[in-house]
């Protein structure tokens, strides 16, 4: 079976990093200078991305990059910050684009509701939810770079979004709608995510997922709501147009 492109891309980046002998021992500067680390991230993102409309959601603009590998190394070199995760925050992923499009076209999924966008990356899905009338949006990502990018992108789109960097996967979410854009590419995360989504559904949350069929997507538990051909980039994917679906989680065991 073909390997998942996102997993290959991620492993490729990781493999190249270790081949280059990158040290991952330096303490994270966040723990020493939280404010200046955020300011440095903000300046870096502004300098190394462009504000562009999202292909499938042109009413939203994001600070995005053209490539991933160089950007990843530049972040480590310029900020002397080793051990960074890949720059997921610098792209609008296929799953996020499809889910954002669906929410914008079906505002009833979020209007007047509290919404959690888990694994927000650039913030795209959370911004779309707020634009579609969500009462309150929480955008969660464990990568502090995503938090900074999400804040910048929310401001650029005049969308009010609360941003958290705690790992919420062992909690029970309180949001009325939980949105997941492209988060089923990693086995460990996917396992914890399913337990999290089961708790969310049991607590009454409506769970919507945008995903192009990544390796660990639990299709048997999902009902398909829509499908899109999402314009993406060969820097990330194996195709320029990626077929991507939006799903609702069911209570089927
Ligand atoms: C492929 S990106 C998708 C970003 C965005 N949803 C989109 O579709 O464009 C996956 C994101 O999930 C985040 N992530 C991974 N594990 C997470 C966790 N346990 N909690 C929150 N975010 C997580 C990563 O940092 C990354 O930003």
Please tag this protein with its features.
9 strands; single chain; Rossmann fold; two-stranded antiparallel sheet; globular; 253 residues; disordered N terminus; alpha/beta; binds S-adenosylmethionine; 7-stranded mixed β-sheet
Descriptive report:
With 253 residues, the chain is α/β, with parallel strands linked by helices. The chain has a single domain, classed as 3-Layer(aba) Sandwich (Rossmann fold). It has helices at 5-19, 34-48, 69-79, 94-105, 124-131, 144-156, 187-202; strands at residues 50-54, 57-64, 114-118, 136-140, 162-164, 177-181, 206-211, 222-231, 241-249. Strands 5-4-3-6-7-9-8 form a 7-stranded mixed sheet, sandwiched between helices. Strands 1-2 form a two-stranded antiparallel sheet. Strand 6 (177-181), helix 7 and strand 7 form a beta-alpha-beta unit. The longest helix is centred in the last third of the chain and has 16 residues, at 187-202. The structure holds S-adenosylmethionine (SAM). The site of S-adenosylmethionine (SAM) has 25 residues, from helix 4 and helix 5.
């Amino acid at each position: 079976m073909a390997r998942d492109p996102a997993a290959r891309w991620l492993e490729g980046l990781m493999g190249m990093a270790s081949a280059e002998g990158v040290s991952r021992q330096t303490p994270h500067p966040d723990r020493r200078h939280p404010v200046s680390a955020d300011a440095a991230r903000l300046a870096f993102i502004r300098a190394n991305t462009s504000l562009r409309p999202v292909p499938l959601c042109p009413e939203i603009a994001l600070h995005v990059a053209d490539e991933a590998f160089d950007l990843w190394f530049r972040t480590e070199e310029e900020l002397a910050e080793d051990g960074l995760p890949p720059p997921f925050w610098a792209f609008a992923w296929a799953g996020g684009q499809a889910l954002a499009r669906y929410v914008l076209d079906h505002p009833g999924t979020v209007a007047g509701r509290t919404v959690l966008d888990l694994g927000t990356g650039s913030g795209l899905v959370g911004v779309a939810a707020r634009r579609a009338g969500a009462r309150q949006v929480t955008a969660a990502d464990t990568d502090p770079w995503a938090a900074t990018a999400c804040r910048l992108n929310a401001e650029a789109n005049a969308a009010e979004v609360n941003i958290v960097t705690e790992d919420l996967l062992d909690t029970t979410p309180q949001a009325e709608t939980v949105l997941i854009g492209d988060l089923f590419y990693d086995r460990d995360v996917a396992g914890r995510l399913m337990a999290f989504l089961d708790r969310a559904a049991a607590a009454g949350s409506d769970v919507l997922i945008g995903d192009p069929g990544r390796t660990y997507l639990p299709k048997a538990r999902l009902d398909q709501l829509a499908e899109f051909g999402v314009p993406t980039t060969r820097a990330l994917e194996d195709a320029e147009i990626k077929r991507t679906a939006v799903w609702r989680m069911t209570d089927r065991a």
